[in-house]
Write a structure and sequence with these properties.
- The complex is a heterodimer of chains A (about 90) and B (about 300).
- With about 90 residues, chain A is α+β, with helices and mostly antiparallel strands.
- Chain A is built from three helices and four strands.
- A four-stranded antiparallel sheet of chain A has the order 2-3-1-4.
- In chain A, a hairpin with an 8-residue loop joins strand 2 and strand 3.
- By secondary structure, chain B is an alpha/beta fold.
- Chain B is built from nine helices and eight strands.
- In chain B, helix 2 crosses helix 9, helix 3 crosses helix 9 and helix 6 packs antiparallel against helix 9.
- The longest helix of chain B has 21 residues.
- Chain B is globular, with a radius of gyration of 18 Å.
- The termini of chain B are far apart.
- Classes of the chains: A alpha+beta (about 90), B alpha/beta (about 300).
- At the A-B interface, strand 2 and helix 3 of A face loops of B.
Chain lengths: ~90, ~300
């Protein structure tokens, strides 16, 4: 199974249209392998993006350099997946 | 053989377990529930639908879930809903009246290949598993593959994208099977699709940002349904046309059904009140299903009471 160790989901809230534009640019960068869980809409609305561990630093630097506010929504996706698996096994038993 | 009463609706299940439970429901309620297969997926898995009918060929309501593989709470909610419909008939006056007037078709796993793949290989998988000639990437977003503004804004022509629309409208057998079924039935009066997450209740259009001719009625019904959803646990929903409350998205199922003549076409995005996204903990499955049921009932009652 593919693992998601260290992948994070960030909650990003662009403050203005300029920041929305910056995020749209980020979205088109295929090599970043970003997975938008909650899509980018307009300024002031939250965006949820899963970011592979290997791309985290680059994305966070991008956000900080453009002064785009974000917080960590899921610290480590794999931890949640492991918990989900455990819960399923428990219920199956 | 596990009886339906022993089935745990409060956890996530494999495809085999879901299919088994569908069989159990059909066995447990033989006068009301039957299972029918409307096609095969790309990898030749059956596309199984539960039919709830008190007899005759009545006008019908269609419910589906899990067109996007990773949205597991939608599959779980659909299965809980199936059990609820069956057990409420003859007890709940509203559901009894509904099933005396209309049939219900429920497809709990619209994208079985993707669902299996999300269990076995990649929990974050969203698309089908069809292969595309000339591309190493696999799968089509089946909710960009319907013949409604196909290939337009909000869908991708890149086979590696999660919103790839596919080579042509209905190219995905999972989509075509439903289209063929809807056309051959001829009397589907409502089409409701369950997704997750972000707590939205939407109606057409997504492929264009103009309002539909039934906007006022659809909005009113959706507002009532969303209030009903909220009434149980306080989960807040946003209501509106797809284009204005998510983004412009072409090739979606409810746009096709609406343009085909199914006025009551709605899409739910189920809950994540705790910022878990597609990894909603199992202890939220039952509350999600229960609150969604409140909204579904409001829509179904409106459909029942407003024939067209």
């Amino acid at each position: 199974q593919k693992t998601f160790i260290g992948d994070q989901v960030l909650e990003i809230t662009p403050r203005n249209e300029e920041q929305v534009k910056n995020l749209r640019q980020l979205e088109t960068e295929a090599h970043l392998q970003l997975d938008f869980w909650r899509p980018l809409r307009t300024a002031g609305e939250k965006v949820h993006v899963r970011i592979p561990f290997s791309r985290l630093q680059a994305v966070k630097i991008f956000l900080e350099s453009h002064d785009i506010p974000y917080s960590i929504m899921i610290e480590d996706v794999q931890v949640l997946l492991d918990k989900e698996n455990e819960e399923m096994l428990f219920h199956r038993r | 053989k596990e009886r339906s009463s022993g089935f745990d609706f409060g956890t996530y299940h494999t495809l085999e377990e879901i299919f088994q439970e569908m069989d159990n429901l059909a066995e447990q309620y033989p006068d009301l529930v039957s299972k029918l297969q409307i096609g095969y997926s790309f990898e030749k898995r059956p596309i199984n639908v539960l039919k709830f009918s008190t007899g005759g060929n009545k006008p019908a309501i269609w419910l589906d879930a899990g067109i996007h593989a990773r949205e597991w709470v939608s599959h779980a909610t659909a299965l809980w809903t199936a059990n609820q419909i069956a057990s409420d008939y003859g007890k709940d006056p509203s559901i009894t009246a509904l099933l005396d007037t209309m049939d219900i078709f429920l497809l709990p796993v619209t994208n079985p290949d993707g669902y299996v793949f999300s269990h076995t290989e990649n929990r974050m998988w969203r698309k089908t598993r069809s292969t595309i000639s000339g591309s190493l990437c696999v799968g089509v977003d089946p909710n960009r593959n319907w013949d409604a503004g196909f290939g337009g804004p909000g869908s991708s022509d890149n086979p590696c994208s999660d919103s790839y629309h596919g080579p042509s409208a209905n190219s995905e057998v999972e989509v075509k099977s439903i289209v063929d079924f809807v056309k051959s039935h001829g009397e589907i009066k409502a089409f409701i699709t369950l997704h997750s997450y972000s707590q939205l209740l939407m109606y057409p259009y997504g492929y264009k940002c103009t309002v539909s001719k039934d906007f006022n009625e659809l909005n009113e019904v959706a507002q009532i349904a969303a209030e009903a959803v909220t009434s149980l646990y306080g989960t807040t929903y946003e209501v509106g046309p797809i284009c204005s409350i998510i983004y412009q998205a072409s090739g979606g199922s409810i746009d096709w059904t609406y343009d085909y003549g199914i006025k009551y076409s709605f899409a739910f995005e189920l809950r994540d009140t705790g910022h878990y996204g597609f990894l909603l903990p199992v202890n939220q499955i039952l509350p999600t299903a229960e609150e969604t049921w409140q909204g579904l009932k409001k829509i179904m009652e409106h459909v029942r009471d407003n024939p067209y």
